[in-house]
Write a structure and sequence with these properties.
Layout lengths: L19 E9 L5 H8 L5 E6 L18 E14 L2 E7 L10 H5 L4 E6 L8 H9 L4 E6 L9 H8 L7 E4 L4 H29 L3
Parallel strand pairs: 1-4, 1-5, 5-6, 6-7
Antiparallel strand pairs: 2-3, 3-4
């Protein structure tokens, strides 16, 4: 007499799908919280290239609103987060100072979208990042980092100041909080998908279908 359950007649389910890996860039000006955001949301110990700021940066890096900042990213930050069982995001944080911008092309190659992190106390420092992604037609969202939990300016005011089109998402965030950072990344993925679907429909409309 045989004991146990027979597997005869059972249809095996489909094998689990390998996760899709996509790349997202986190950009913005000097000291806006890029390293903090990547570190807050990454499920692995993030790779950072933080260097201690020295006297060589005096007169170059404006620390008037960042009195406690002692380090800066000189190459990139790297982290990873799994949003779903089949979607894995690789995060690349760019250096903020203009003397390191020569690295941006390599860091952005292959990315599906980007986050432009903004400190409204120094709004002018994010213009270069916005221009960069607009010129390359890379989908991006603007995330307003609420330092100390303070909302100094409404998203619609920031949109107007940056002259952003209506389809670019502008959202509030706290770069220190994992759930807040995760919302930003989901917004980037959704925005990139919408842009991609619109691009695919474009030729069909042009052809009269």
């Amino acid at each position: 007499m045989a004991y146990g359950r027979s597997d005869q007649g059972l249809t095996p389910g489909p094998p689990p799908r390998a996760p899709t890996a996509v790349k997202i860039v986190v950009a913005g000006g000097f000291g806006v919280g890029k390293t903090t955001l990547v570190g807050a949301v990454s499920e692995i110990t993030p790779l950072t290239t933080e260097a201690v700021m020295t006297s060589a940066s005096v007169g170059i890096d404006d620390l008037s609103k960042l009195p406690d900042k002692t380090t800066t990213t000189v190459a990139m930050d790297f982290g990873r987060i799994t949003l779903d069982s089949d979607l894995m995001l690789y995060l690349f944080g760019t250096p903020g100072q203009d003397r390191f911008w020569f690295m941006w092309d390599d860091l952005c190659r292959g990315a599906i979208g980007a986050v432009v992190l903004v400190d409204t106390r120094r709004l002018d420092e994010c213009f270069a990042a916005v221009d960069y992604f607009e010129q390359r037609e890379l989908p991006f969202v603007v995330a307003i980092n609420c330092f100390n939990g303070e909302v100094a300016h409404k998203p619609e005011d920031v949109r107007e100041a940056l002259v952003l089109p209506d389809d670019v998402p502008v959202i509030l965030c706290d770069a220190r909080v994992r759930d807040s950072a995760k919302v930003i990344l989901i917004e980037v993925v959704q925005h990139a998908l919408i842009r991609a679907s619109g691009a695919l429909r474009g030729p069909a409309r042009a052809g009269g279908y």
